[in-house]
Amino acid sequence: MNHLSNSDAELIQATINDDQEAFKIFVERYQKPIYSYLYRFLYQNREAAEDITQSVFLKVYQNLNTIDTAKSIKSWIYRIAHNEAANYLRSVSRKKESLFDDEQWSKMADQKEHQEDNSEQYSELIQKALEKIKPKYREVIVLYYFEEKSYEEIATILNSSANSVGTQIRRAKQHLKKILDKLAPDLAAIFIVLISLLSIERGRTL
Amino acid sequence: MKNIDEILKKSKPEVPELPISFSSDVLLKIKEQGLTISSQKMTSPIVNWFSFIIGLGLLMVALLTTNNAIYEVQMSGSLELLSFGTQYVSDFAKYLPLDIIIPSLLITAISSWLLVRSHMIKRGVALIVAGSFLVTSVGGSALASTSINSKIQASVIKEKIEIPIISWFYKERARYHMKHNSVQVGQVIEQNKHFVLIKDPYGQTQKIYLPGGMKVTPGQYIRMNGQVIENGFKATIMQHCNPTSTGKYFMHMGMMSNEMNGNMMKHHRQMQNKMMNGKMMGNRDMMRNNKQ
Fold it and tell me: Residue B270 has what pLDDT?
């Protein structure tokens, strides 16, 4: 049976009626956005994002009966993903493991020194700063700026209110700015070195 | 620096592709782990509202119960023991009405569980639980600091109002004052060169030998730490009490005279045993009543 054109509610009903193919289509419909959110939220850790995406869909399968099809199914899945990611981050912090090891840091720093594009440098800097802010702030940044969710959608995912989401985003940006202020001297130093090298090079050619 | 919103939007990290077999792997995992779709249906909004209202109601009950526990502690005068430092903490603990405190904690826990379950409060579980306990303790303390309990107690006892549980509490509980063989509390009624006479909350006159140099005037409320001697009480430490809070003991105890019923006697006897075990001296009147 071809389920591609079926609505989410129809796919869910078919799955409840023991049609595994329907659930496969359902997973395919949502796997990319959920994985993308988890990958960006979980410090771009591919392995963790993949594992958690899988456990999200296992949870979705087990709880298909509790879905309120009148509400946004997508937000419901995101909410499960948020809970799973939060559990994962808690377990990682308990084990005191680092999601981002020294090797990755130095690799990033090396790349930065060889980059000439300003916007890319900003982007790298932002990523570095995002590693340092609290997960709850990181999550709202990821959902709002990277996943382009509205305040209302984020509120549903985080079981919060739209106003509270707005406050969280504002605070997240304040924290981010503080971290960027601390990181900025490094960037300024790189700029000075690059500009000096460029002037020396120009001097030689003249 | 560029506008942070602009930079954030441009900083979106690229996401690698998921394996092509991802959805098949999920189905395989379901099969391997033998997962099934839970038969539990979604709770209806009516059930959620019901949980929310019951939760709030129980929170109010817990708040009132906490208020009752605090009122009983206040009226027993056991807090006076803490004025003399940590040496009497264990004696103070014996006066804690655990049979009210423990149910109050349980009711708060149940109410917070219902509030969490209702999904009506868009906050985390820890915050709801902490908030419930905060409401109960702060609200209960605030209520106990007003005169509402004394007014209710006066109405219940003087006008003989019968309200289940409430009448029981105000008639049979919160109607005793602590007695300790090392601590005395009372109002100065007479003073002479060698000793002072005080009236304790039970209305009995006690002869007190104050530490040298201590001066008191009739009408003042005082508390003393010391020991019982042959012809009175020899104080080694004397402190002036807050007339408002200490005055309450006298009003409270005055209101109760000759109105103890069987259940109240039983409760007093239990407190009496606790006191004796903890080197506390019982109320002489109570002992006499018990013998009768």
Answer: 64
Residues A196 and A128 in one domain: yes
Contact B42 A127 (CB under 8 A): no
Give residues 138 to 177 of A whose Cβ lies within 8 Å of B.
141, 145-146, 155, 159-161, 164, 173, 176-177
How far apart CA B14 and CA B131 sit, in angstroms, is 41
The H-assigned helical ranges of chain B are: 4-10, 22-33, 45-76, 79-82, 89-94, 98-118, 125-144, 148-158, 166-172, 243-256, 262-277, 284-291
Sorted by sequence, the CB contacts under 8 Å of residue A182 that are 6+ apart come out as none
Query: Is residue A75 in some structural domain?
Result: yes
SS3 A72: coil
Q: Any CB–CB contact under 8 A between B87 and chain A? A: no
B95 touches B271 (CB < 8 A): yes
Low-confidence ranges of chain A (pLDDT < 50): 98, 100-102, 104-105, 108-109, 112, 115-116, 188, 191, 204-206
Tell me whether residue A104 is in a domain.
Answer: no
Residues of B in contact with A35 (CB under 8 A): 15, 18
H-helix or E-strand containing B182?
A: none
Comparing alpha-carbon positions, the chain A residue that sits nearest to B6 is: A145
Beta bridge partners of residue B198, listed in sequence order: B188, B206
Q: Which of A95, A127, A162 is the last residue of a domain?
A: A95
Asked whether residue A73 is domain-assigned, the answer is: yes
In chain B, residues with a C-beta closer than 8 Å to the C-beta of A141 are 8
Q: Per-residue confidence at B254, pLDDT binned at 50, 70, 90?
A: low
CA B64-B66-B72 angle, to 5 degrees, is: 105
**Calpha distance B246→B237 (Å, rounded):** 18
The CATH number of residue A43's host domain is 1.10.1740.10
CATH number at residue A131: 1.10.10.10
Which chain A residues are closer than 8 Å to B37 by Cβ? 15-16, 61-65
- For chain A, the domain total comes to 2
- The residue from A95, A122, A142 where one domain ends is A95
Same domain as A68, residue A18: yes
Considering the domain boundaries, does residue A142 fall inside one? yes
**Six-digit token string for B97:** 């009405």
- Token pair 């991802």 is found at B22
- Residue B262's contacts (CB-CB under 8 Å, 6 or more residues apart) are none
B143: left (phi over 0), alpha (psi -120 to 50) or beta: alpha
Q: Which residue range(s) make up the domain with A52?
A: 8-95
Residue B230 pLDDT: 84
